[in-house]
Design brief:
Helix 1 runs antiparallel to helix 6, helix 2 (27-48) runs antiparallel to helix 4 and helix 2 (27-48) runs parallel beside helix 6. The chain contains 6 helices and no strands. It has one domain (2-12, 27-159). The chain is mainly alpha-helical and 161 residues long.
């Protein structure tokens, strides 16, 4: 889990380097990573609990009438997990890094303009530095959230409710 956290953190932070690219701002990478981990978690669950795997979708003590409503809801929520993991990471990284690039471009445009715009470019530049600090925090938090959710999903598959 520490390796997963460090991997996501390094990929997220690498986008803060000027003229670089954040790999987690691509939905295909985050979705592939989430699907790979989701399949691994399902394999662990099947190895640990061969015949009890489907008890994930119907908790003990549920009535038959409730099962007709509860099982489809649990199935949908179970298979949406990798989608929510990937979209959360992708959207947060894409939004923050796009904001940084827009602010940097705006500051640069003001700097190359003549006259009073040259002196006014320090305002968006200051905002850019502050947002970069916030983006460093977001990169750390997103790696942490992704790892914690994978740990929760793994715990659910091992302990079965």
């Amino acid at each position: 889990m520490l390796s997963l956290f460090c991997f996501i953190l390094v990929i997220n932070v690498s986008g803060l380097v000027p003229y670089s690219y954040t790999l987690t701002s691509q939905i295909i990478l985050t979705f592939s990573l989430a699907i790979l981990l989701f399949v691994g978690i399902n394999i662990v669950c099947l190895v640990e609990h061969k015949h009890l795997f489907f008890s994930l979708f119907l908790p003990k003590g549920s009535s038959i009438g409730l099962a007709f409503v509860l099982v489809p809801i649990e199935l949908v929520s179970y298979f949406v997990r990798p989608v929510s993991l990937s979209v959360r990471l992708f959207a947060n990284m894409m939004a923050g890094h796009t904001l940084l690039k827009v602010l940097a471009g705006f500051s640069w445009s003001m700097m190359v303009a003549s006259g009073s715009f040259f002196f006014c470019h320090f305002v968006p530049l200051t905002i850019l530095v502050i947002v970069m600090g916030l983006e460093l925090g977001v990169a750390l938090i997103q790696g942490y959230v992704f790892t914690v959710l994978i740990c929760i999903y793994l715990n659910d598959s091992i302990n079965l409710h």
